[in-house]
Write a structure and sequence with these properties.
CATH topology: Pectate Lyase C-like
Strand content: 35-45%
Shape: globular
Keywords: Carbohydrate metabolism, Lyase, Polysaccharide degradation, Secreted, Signal
Helix content: under 10%
Number of helices: 3
Radius of gyration: 18 Å
Subcellular location: Secreted
GO biological process, one term: polysaccharide catabolic process
GO molecular function: pectate lyase activity
Protein name: Pectate lyase
CATH architecture: 3 Solenoid
Distance between the termini: 45 Å
Length: 319
């Protein structure tokens, strides 16, 4: 069965444990290898779909240095670019409006709280360091669409570093660094939230999971979730968990000194599906596959897996 998408360069591919079954012409690459993405200023992956993600491009620019100024500047749905300067101590979760770009100046830090995106669209968050958040670092929920979370650094906090749930969709999480986080990247609210089925389409690429514990990501219901060219180092529990009939493509990643690379099912959650292919493994279990997974409709360039450690460790995180 052929699935044809609006992008004239691409048709869908079905991924199985035995390999890829091409259902049409391959998509043209959109970005060069490694750090080239950082130079383009544009997302790759699911955030390019559904009209794309441009954030506050074309709007006015405001620089903020306090929690109250930040909360005011990021509110509302008018196009806007908000630059964060210095360290800002916030309490709770700051609500972000649609059509917003939030970008940190060199050394920008949000501490004590995080950012929440609820029922919004077209948001970009870049170059921030999240530290000591009392809830989540970034929380995306309630049908939020077209989000790009890029080149941030997450240090440990109380709950999730970067959680996506409740029917959110068309999201790219790229070039971020997660240092020692525990509940890192939850994708899917709960086993009972079946409305997430057919949503939660997320690309995770060129992220550095450094000494994390779990959930990188932990997936429920979503398909296809694209996890590629990430560097996993010294992961204490597990890297990727596919549950509740989710479909995950796990390709071109570099796993080093990881306890478990793939969990099929997790806790009380039933098993999902995953296609693991073309990964590089050092002192870690070989990633397993289970079932078949629908392919992605966008173009992307897969870096050589053995080079991902140097590419990602040199390029991921806030500047």
């Amino acid at each position: 069965m052929e699935h044809v998408f609006g992008n004239r360069h691409s048709r869908r591919t079905l991924f199985t444990a035995a390999g890829a079954v091409a259902l049409g012409a391959a998509a043209a690459p959109l970005a060069g290898p490694g750090s080239a993405l950082a130079q383009t200023g544009s997302p790759v992956g699911w955030a390019t779909q559904n009209g794309g993600t441009t954030g506050g491009s074309g709007g006015g620019t405001t620089t903020v240095t306090s929690a109250s100024a930040l909360a005011s500047a990021v509110s509302g749905d008018a196009r806007k670019i908000v630059r964060v300067s210095g360290t800002i101590q916030i309490s709770g979760m700051v609500r972000v409006g649609s059509n917003t770009t939030i970008v940190g100046n060199s050394g920008a830090v949000l501490t004590g709280g995080g950012l929440t995106l609820r029922t919004v669209s077209n948001v970009i968050i870049q170059n921030l360091r999240f530290r000591g958040y009392a809830d989540d670092g970034i929380n995306v929920e309630e049908r939020s669409r077209n989000i790009w979370i890029d080149h941030n650094t997450f240090e440990p906090g109380t709950d999730g570093a970067c959680d996506i749930k409740r029917e959110s969709d068309f999201i790219t999480v790229s070039w971020n660094r997660f240092d020692g986080t525990d509940k890192t990247c939850l994708l899917g609210h709960s086993d009972g939230h079946t409305a997430d089925r057919g949503k939660l389409r997320v690309s995770y690429h060129h992220n550095y999971f450094n000494g994390t514990t779990q959930r990188t990501p932990r997936v429920r219901f979503a398909e296809p979730v694209h996890v590629y060219n990430n560097y996993y180092a010294n992961v204490r529990s597990y890297c990727i968990a596919t549950t509740m009939d989710a479909g995950v493509i796990n390709e071109g990643n570099y796993f080093e000194n990881c306890n478990r690379t793939v969990d099929i099912g997790q806790g009380d959650s039933g098993p999902g599906r995953i296609v693991s292919r073309n990964n590089h493994v050092v002192n870690s279990p070989a990633p397993v596959s289970r079932g078949s997974v629908a392919g992605v409709p966008y173009g992307f360039q897969l870096d050589t897996p053995s080079q991902v450690k140097s590419i990602v460790s040199g390029g991921a995180g806030a500047r």
